[in-house]
Specification:
There is one protein chain. With 327 residues, the chain is an alpha/beta fold. It folds into two domains: 209 residues, Rossmann fold (3-Layer(aba) Sandwich); 90 residues, Rossmann fold (3-Layer(aba) Sandwich), CATH 3.40.50. The chain is built from 14 helices and ten strands. It has a six-stranded mixed beta sheet with strand order 1-2-10-7-8-9, with helices on both faces. Strands 5-4-3-6 form a four-stranded parallel beta sheet. The termini are far apart. The relative contact order is 0.15. The chain binds ligand PLV. Ligand PLV binds next to helix 3, helix 8 and helix 12.
């Protein structure tokens, strides 16, 4: 603790569990990569922990991180482990349990603007004004390098490549990290199903337009998928791997959260519900029927990205807001 020279990673190697219920729904073996059990509640600790350790080694004195929540918790957790002060900038309307968790990690919390992009501008100002190091939640090579560890764990657990990999896309950091990891282990032929919710679909919109697109607003409840513009690196990944971009409605993501809670007794954020909806809403089956994915997949890995901005009360409120109270 407090020794920036120490290089044990902050993330843990997560379980890879076959899900009976999701396998039934998909008609093929579904394996869950359980990033929800990471120390800071999501996969984010892989990349952000790595980034923070690197900048600490280079003498960083204060970290600032603009976040939808989970990147901030990963940064605050890393900062505490490294003995460096941290300021986390969240959009206004951030979940109170996230603010409490950040304060519990010893971080200072600032609220700025409506969406992540506003918080990002504020964090950049603070970094410039005060000489702090800005921790980018998704757009930095060290973040991708850290996330790539997830694929090394898959390789160690599975040996043979899965038939497909399902993940959620916000700013595209997880996608970029997974693509880097697939290249590293020689699995670049594994198709990736990249899930977003409508209203936070900046990756899909950019693909449709054939160029980077900035969404006018984030209207989805999956605020953690809400970077208005996806990282350029995420679009470059399209040249390196087979990536199938799919968009689900908020109601599909939220009912996937409820079904996952009942099936696996794990509660995740809407951002993660988007990935689970690939199975529960039948996207995977449709891609197979359309011939875009192999009709007989040996197995499918779903990255259960996790997330802290959720509790039982919030799940009820999300369902009520979407008219899903009876689900
Ligand atoms: N969340 C970022 C960006 O928010 C954050 O600040 O926490 N699943 C979960 C649970 C997440 O928290 C995020 C990103 C993603 C998926 C998407 O990851 P990305 O941005 O690397 O594509 C606005």
């Amino acid at each position: 603790m407090g020794d920036p020279g120490k290089s044990e990673p902050f993330h843990v190697a997560t379980p890879l569990l076959e899900s009976w219920a999701l396998s039934q729904a998909a008609g093929t073996s579904v394996l869950l990569k359980c990033e929800n059990v990471q120390p800071a509640g999501s996969f984010k600790i892989r990349g952000i922990g790595h980034f923070c350790q690197e900048v600490a080694r280079q003498g960083c004195r204060h970290l600032v991180c603009p976040s939808g929540g989970n990147a901030g918790i990963a940064a605050a957790y890393s900062a505490r482990r490294l003995g460096i002060p941290a300021t986390i900038v969240l959009p206004e309307g951030a979940a109170p349990q996230v603010v409490r968790r950040l304060q519990g990690e010893g971080a200072e919390v600032q609220l700025a603007g409506k969406v992540w992009d506003d918080a990002n501008l504020r964090a950049q100002e603070l970094a410039e004004r005060d000489g702090w190091v800005n921790v980018p939640p998704f757009d930095h090579p060290l973040i991708w390098e850290g996330h790539a560890s997830l694929v090394r764990e898959l390789k160690a657990a599975l040996g043979a490549p899965p038939g497909a990999l399902v993940l959620a896309v916000g700013g595209g950091g997880l996608l970029a990290g997974v693509v880097a990891g697939l290249a590293e282990v020689g699995w670049q032929h594994v198709p990736i199903v990249a899930m977003e919710t409508r209203g936070a679909h900046s990756f899909n919109a950019a693909i449709q337009a054939g160029r980077p697109v900035t969404l006018p607003d984030i209207t989805s409840v999956a605020k953690c998928l809400g970077a208005r513009t996806v990282a350029a690196r995420a679009l470059a990944c399209l040249q390196e791997c087979e990536i199938l971009s799919e968009v689900v409605e908020d109601a599909e993501a939220v009912s996937a959260m409820q079904r996952f809670l009942d099936d696996e007794r794990m509660l995740v954020e809407p951002a993660c519900g988007a990935a689970l909806a690939a199975i529960y809403s039948g996207c995977l089956g449709r891609l197979q029927a359309e011939g875009r994915l192999c009709p007989s997949l040996a197995s499918v890995v779903v990255i259960v990205c996790g997330g802290n901005s959720i509790d039982s009360r919030e799940l009820q409120a999300l369902k009520a807001g979407l008219g899903l109270s009876c689900v």
